[in-house]
Every structure is written in structure tokens, then in C-alpha cells.
Amino acid sequence: MKRIKDGFAGQRMFVLPPHIRRAVMANPISRNFYITAVGYYPKAWGHERERRYGSNDYIMIYCTDGGGEITVNSAKVNLKSNSYFIIPANTPHKYNSWVNEPWSIYWMHFNGELAAEIYSRCLLAGEPAVHEVSYNGNRIQTFEELCDILAHSYNKREMEIMNFDALHFVTSLVYYREIDPVAYNLDAISSSIAFMKLNINIKYGLSELAKQQNISVTHYSKMFRQKTGSSPVNYFNELKVQRSCQELYFTDKSIKTICAELGFEDQYYFSRLFSKVTGVSPSKYKQLQKCKPLVK
């Protein structure tokens, strides 16, 4: 592994040599996602790059302090503390750290069969965008671990572990809302879904769910379907079925008891709903999932 001489105090930077890169790309475990270069630049005053023809890789830049400017084609964005941006592959770009508040950044060049799909998950309305994220010490620890591997070895198994860490780091940013929905999903529909989960054992109708969010039934229903692709009542019932699956699998409760605990007054209605969602009846599901005794 080639280590580049420090350009900023405390910098870490690694670039995979061509023969290691070829080995990683040929490895069925790592070829789906792998990094080709990675680094950390603290207080990177004067840092700037321009690639008129772009890079073969996707480039993630995660800023933890200060800020800078990124231009992709002719679109400019500001990257500030606790935010990230991914530059698409094969796209002209340039970026630079602010003079008065130079950025501290973690960056990765990544590629592989999954790279384009992962990149697509951070687009907004089909366009690249800056995403603000909360600082997470575990994320930084993961980054340090992969750098420690690169600092001392590039054998096959350790390269596999290193790329697992890299994928974890990148996806912790790309899927930040899903990983910590309480912190980020503050809209009315997310709040309503959280309310459903907390009150899974109570029977609520459409008007009651809309009232809980202080939204008209019509507007609430439209918003809910836009976000989830489902009606509020159907979504709530599917949550109840998911809970019933857990109860059927992990407990010895009867179907009648589970039905009552989830707010269903009609056991036959519950059975029809369960069959519609899962494809089997509650009794059949319980039979299929029943743990068999270990053979001695």
C-alpha cells in the first residue's frame, strides 16, 4: 500500500497501488464495493483539486469542521461542518477549502458493482446534493480502523475487512435518516408512524390518526400515501401483522389472545388480514415457524 507524504498536520492518506487494485477488483467478496484511495485532511488550508475530465471513481467528501466549495459541472455547493457530498464518477469537478475556515474532511474514492446504486441513494430529485448529518464517533472509529489496516498490510483477507469497513462508513452517511429516524424524520407522517408503533395495541381509524397530527383527513391521507405508498389504515394494520408475527414466533400465546392484544375485535377479520399480508393464515404461520426440538 502506498502512503503519501503528509501535506497537512495530522493528515492520513492512502492510495491502492495498481496491482492491489486489480486483486481487489477480481475478488468476488470485495468487487461489489471497494475503495481506491482514502484520506483525512484536518484544517486543510489551501486544499484544492480540479479534474477537468472527472474521476473513474465516485468521491465522497465528509466535512467535520470548517467548510469549502464543490463545483460539479457548473453547479456549485457549499460543504459545511457535519455534512457530506458525493461527486459522481466521470464528471468534471473541482473543490477547495475555505480560506478563513478551512475544512477538515474525510474522503474516499470508491467503485464497484454497487457504487452507482449507492450513489443514487443520496440524490435529491435526481440531482447530487449536500446532506447534513449528525456527528457519530462510531463512524470515525470505523474510518480509523480501515486506515490502520492500510497502514500495515494489504493481504487478501485484510483488504476484504478494510472494504467492509469502507462500505460501513459510506452507508452510515448515505442512509443516515434510516439509521437514526428519530433524529431526522421530523415530518408529520414520520411522527404519525412513530405514534402507530407506540400505540400498536389500540384501534385507531383514519380520522383519529389525522387528528393526532392536527391535519385534515384528506391532506393527511394524501401526504401519507406520497411518503409510504400506502393508506394510513393499511399501513397501521400491516404494522400490527408484523407484531403478530413476532408474537406467533416467539411466544406460546393463542391467536385469539394476540388478536385481542393488537386491538382487533374480530378474529376472523384479523385472520383474513394476516393471510392477505403474509400469504398464509395465522395458524399455518405458527405451525411453519414453530421451533423443532434439537436432535441429540
Question: Can you walk me through this structure?
Answer:
The structure is a single chain. The chain is of the alpha+beta class and 296 residues long. 45% of the residues lie in helices and 20% in strands. The protein has 13 helices and eleven strands. The chain has helices at 18-26, 115-120, 137-152, 156-174, 176-179, 181-184, 188-198, 206-212, 217-228, 232-250, 255-261, 267-278, 282-289, and strands spanning 2-3, 12-15, 34-41, 48-51, 58-65, 67-72, 75-80, 83-87, 93-97, 104-111, 131-132. It has a seven-stranded antiparallel beta sheet. A four-stranded antiparallel beta sheet has the order 4-9-6-7, with no helix packed on it. The longest helix is centred in the middle third of the chain and has 19 residues, at 156-174. The protein starts with a strand and ends in a 7-residue tail after the last helix.
In brief, what are we looking at here?
This protein is an alpha+beta fold and 296 residues long.
Sequence of secondary-structure elements: EEHEEEEEEEEHEHHHHHHHHHHH
Helicity level? 40-55%
Contiguous uncertain segments of 5+ residues: 1-6, 292-296
Biggest pleated sheet = 7 strands, antiparallel
Gross geometry = elongated
Strand neighbour order, sheet with most strands: 1-2-3-10-5-8-11
For the secondary structure, the number of strands is 11
Continuous helix count: 13
Radius of gyration: 25 Å
Provide mean pLDDT, rounded. 91
Content-based structural category = alpha+beta
First-residue to last-residue Cα separation = 50 Å
Strand composition percent: 15-25%
